Automatic annotation (TrEMBL):
Stated family: Belongs to the GART family.
Gene Ontology biological process terms in this record: 'de novo' IMP biosynthetic process
UniProt name for this protein: Phosphoribosylglycinamide formyltransferase
Gene3D superfamilies reported for this sequence: Formyl transferase, N-terminal domain
Pathway connected to this protein: Purine metabolism; IMP biosynthesis via de novo pathway; N(2)-formyl-N(1)-(5-phospho-D-ribosyl)glycinamide from N(1)-(5-phospho-D-ribosyl)glycinamide (10-formyl THF route): step 1/1
Species of origin: Microbacterium barkeri
InterPro entries membership: Formyl_transf_N (IPR002376), Formyl_transf_N_sf (IPR036477), GART (IPR004607)
Function per UniProt: Catalyzes the transfer of a formyl group from 10-formyltetrahydrofolate to 5-phospho-ribosyl-glycinamide (GAR), producing 5-phospho-ribosyl-N-formylglycinamide (FGAR) and tetrahydrofolate.
Binding-site positions, (6R)-10-formyltetrahydrofolate: 64, 89-92, 106
Length: 196
């Protein structure tokens, strides 16, 4: 059984979907802890499912590196097989990434390498493209530049604003994340040698 730690910053909608999937009989992974870089609303989802939570507040540390060291200490203590960044709106220090790579994955609301960064949905709209997408990647030291594990296109519809487009991307993102976690747990996805 694959053990998973999830890191969030916000409401945790992807986390909720993963918690629901992991509670289904036969799902080959279990969530063992949920952490956040602030007092995130999404921690309530973990508590509802009886999953331990922790917080490593960014503001309590003098630098990104010091925060990363404290977060790494928590992740070591938990000892999960896989770490899922699920809306963690914080660039991780390279020392933390180097320690846990490639066992750390992230979702992104764009068809990478198109529109990396914090505003993937807004950037897709600004570019006037007819389609964008969702991706699940291995975290590396770049910005949304790690190996792609799964992705799917999502059309941009006439009249879309950022909120409407993002709401259509989210279900695809959730499904891809669940499929990737299942695939890693089942040995169908090899993080050491991803196919792309």
């Amino acid at each position: 059984m694959l053990s998973v730690a999830v890191l969030i910053s916000g409401t945790g909608s992807n986390l909720r979907a993963l918690l629901e999937a992991a509670s289904e009989p036969g799902f080959p992974a279990r969530i063992v802890a949920v952490g956040a870089d602030r007092d995130a609303a999404g921690l309530a989802h973990a508590e509802e499912f009886g999953i331990p939570t922790f917080t490593v507040p960014y503001r309590d540390h003098p630098s990104r590196e010091a925060w990363g060291a404290a977060l790494a200490e928590e992740l070591r203590r938990i000892g999960a097989d896989l770490i899922v960044l699920s809306g963690l709106m914080r660039l991780l220090p390279s020392a933390l990434v180097d320690e846990f790579a490639p066992r750390m994955i992230n979702t992104h609301p764009a068809f990478l390498p198109e529109f990396p960064g914090a505003h993937g949905v807004r950037d897709a709209l600004a570019a006037g493209v007819e389609e964008t997408g969702a991706s699940v990647i291995i975290v590396d030291n770049g910005v949304d530049s790690g190996p792609i594990l799964a992705q799917e296109r999502v059309p941009v519809l006439p009249g879309d604003d950022e909120a409407a487009l993002h709401e259509r991307i989210k279900p695809v993102e959730r499904r891809l994340l669940i499929d990737v976690v299942r695939g890693i747990a089942a040995g169908e996805i090899d993080l050491e040698n991803p196919s792309r």
